[in-house]
Amino acid sequence: MPIGKKCWAIAEGYIPPYSHSTNRELISHETVCILNASDQQARVELTIFFSDKNPVGPYLIFVPARRTKHVRFNDLTDPEPVPKGVDYASLLISDVEIVVQHTRLDSRGEDIALISTIAFGN
Amino acid sequence: MPIGKKCWAIAEGYIPPYSHSTNRELISHETVCILNASDQQARVELTIFFSDKNPVGPYLIFVPARRTKHVRFNDLTDPEPVPKGVDYASLLISDVEIVVQHTRLDSRGEDIALISTIAFGN
Amino acid sequence: MPIGKKCWAIAEGYIPPYSHSTNRELISHETVCILNASDQQARVELTIFFSDKNPVGPYLIFVPARRTKHVRFNDLTDPEPVPKGVDYASLLISDVEIVVQHTRLDSRGEDIALISTIAFGN
Amino acid sequence: MPIGKKCWAIAEGYIPPYSHSTNRELISHETVCILNASDQQARVELTIFFSDKNPVGPYLIFVPARRTKHVRFNDLTDPEPVPKGVDYASLLISDVEIVVQHTRLDSRGEDIALISTIAFGN
What we know:
Chain A is an all-beta fold.
């Protein structure tokens, strides 16, 4: 069953530039979580917006039918990595309905801090 | 008075695989909070989606009329437990209008971290 | 200018039962933040839902025109205090459009943890 | 492509009155994150609401076409600074569609706490 929207935006974006841990799970990171509850693969175009330069993208993300994909912004490389310690925002355009949630783990200190919010669906 | 939607999605899902505490209140967990403000019992079907295998469910949750139920994903057992340290997402289908909110308590470190967001209602 | 909805729900609710600090600002608490951007006073009826007993309320909250009011659930007394360490949910019905956001400060540990989410507006 | 709404509200607002760090990144602050994905500059009027006095504003924020701007409430000065340790709320009116998210970093303790939520779009 398709649920969600085809267009989603996340106005907040910031990968903390350092981490207290070197364990992948606890490295400072941001994640976009995508749920594709439909019966078709979702082809998602992700664009990153900045405060002082042109948007970068699209980054292509494929989410198979009836699957979720949690993509770290830290792991994006094509067309280019997302810079750390820089304000950004993101826009996702999908060809099928999806649901999008945004999360950050900040491990600059000894204990982690977390944020999460459902994105804005248009 | 019924308030809410009958279909809700949470794109983020991750139960941290360990905890600093053994106190139930402070064990790393995720919760789906359901409010049924209507005058009828809500029968809710919860399905869990993964990145690399078929969805699991439905998990059946009954929320009496004019009650709230905060269900830990850690406590789900039927049809099977939700694995820890694994990305997932969830979908809830109810027969009456409900309101759904998602929360995680992460106690991998000495001090806890929390997230919460209203889910996406369709 | 009126902005918002007249009916709002918060499915999550839990006042941590103890605190590391005795400073009012850092005592574990939950808050419902109400913005009344309209030119009329808002009369808000708040009802608290539980998992195992009938709802309690209404708690009456008056938010003057063009004002915000951040009400701690800990401070509610009439008709009765909100119990600590207990799952609850809440429903707000206003006679003018308002905007509602939910926040928790958890200071059970040495360092605080925070959550916040916009509520669900019907 | 324009995405979002022209009117947004954030009911929560509170800049913690002190910080454990003097590093700008880790000073207690609140931020309003604005994404303007359209092809026109956005002129945004921000108004701050209080519990016990008239609203202050508008604060003018210009977000160029296809850019994001993350504005710290701590940095607002015109018409006047936003007081610390005081409850407030905010309203944003834009001439083009934007997306708005709210974040707080609280560094009163040794380790930071974070909140974030998508704002309410009217």
